[in-house]
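Q: Structure tokens for this one, please.
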Amino acid sequence: MENRKIGTGLLIGIIGLIVSILSCIAAWIMIPGIGEFFFQANKAETEGGVNTNIPEEATPTEEIEIMFEPTQAVPDPENLINNGYFLDDFDGWQRELVDEGGSSKISIINFGSSLFNRALHIEHEGLGEIYFYQDVDIPSTDLVFSCSFNASSTEGPIIGFSGTGFTIIGIVYLDSQNNSLGFTRIINFNESLFAGTSFVGAPEELSDTNTTHNYEVESGNTYADFTIDINKELNNNLLGIDPTAVDAIEIMLIVGSTDSSASAELTISDIVLKEK
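A: Here is the predicted structure, written as tokens:
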């Protein structure tokens, strides 16, 4: 009987201890912050150890916008042409005016086909012409010429008989004495229907020779990076010129008219002459 009382007392004591422990745990859980931490940690364990809850006071990571500026174009350091991009307006170019009663105008304008959106613009109306040119000493004829341009021309009132406006981008091959050996022309004009015929007053037909080669281009078209390999040009199209005799090249830009009622204009930039 005495042993049974001892057992009952021990059981009551154990139950009391358990109740005390549960009370402490309940009180601990209710302490601000600790209970929240307990449940957050417990939830993280049930989700594979990854806590996906963001505390209310936390703020999302701000996105940082990184600005990228496009690479700015720079003049080709190997270009033998002085101011071929017309960044310095007309510097480096000589000008000559043949005044026969017509009118010439020049300006620097925006030009989308230029790396720098700049170009020389030449207009001419009526009789006469205007030249821009510069001479370039060259190390050899192993060169490449290129430019971007737009050319146009009109003719006089009587189609087939009147004169015409014209534009020429010329590459003149010079010897050691500065004499012309021949030339290449990129030309725009309105050729008469009677050119080269026996009609009285008919103009000569545009034609190539052993020292002259022509590239005829259409009015209103923009030609970007129009390129000529100088060695190939001399060896294939200008057989009357000895390439070893060429010491310099003259670049000529000509706009003019052979009729008082005709006109022409040329927009050109990115003129480059460099070794291959």
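A few notes: Helices lie at 2-30, 34-46, 230-237. The chain has two domains: 1-68, 94-275.
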